[in-house]
Amino acid sequence: MGYTNHKYDKIMSSNGNSFVGGVILNIGLVLLPIWIGYKTYQWIDPDSFWGVIKFLFAWGIFSAIADGIVMLVIGGLLSLFNND
Fold first, then answer.
1. Which pLDDT value is given to residue 75?
2. Which end of the chain is more exposed for a tag (fewer CB within 10 A), N or C?
3. What is the C-alpha radius of gyration for the chain, rounded to an integer number of angstroms?
4. Inter-axis angle of helices 16-44 and 49-80, nearest 10
5. In sequence order, what E strands does 1-84 have?
6. What is the DSSP letter of 48?
7. In whole angstroms, how far apart are CA 73 and each of 4, 35, 66?
8. pLDDT of residue 47
């Protein structure tokens, strides 16, 4: 009757480091594509239809790469500070 599955206790535990990492990750994943879009717009400076297409394509590629890097860095930092 009192059986608990201890394998999942660590996953569901409240860890302050993971909360702060999650907040930083979410803020980064919202603000980073906006900043990358601004910089990509300055770099490409679309003045025609195909310029806009190039801008959207480059913005998507650069945002995906940056999001992956941010997730790897935050995940790596969280694994360093894991107290379990």
1. 81
2. N
3. 19
4. 160
5. none
6. S
7. 34, 18, 11
8. 93
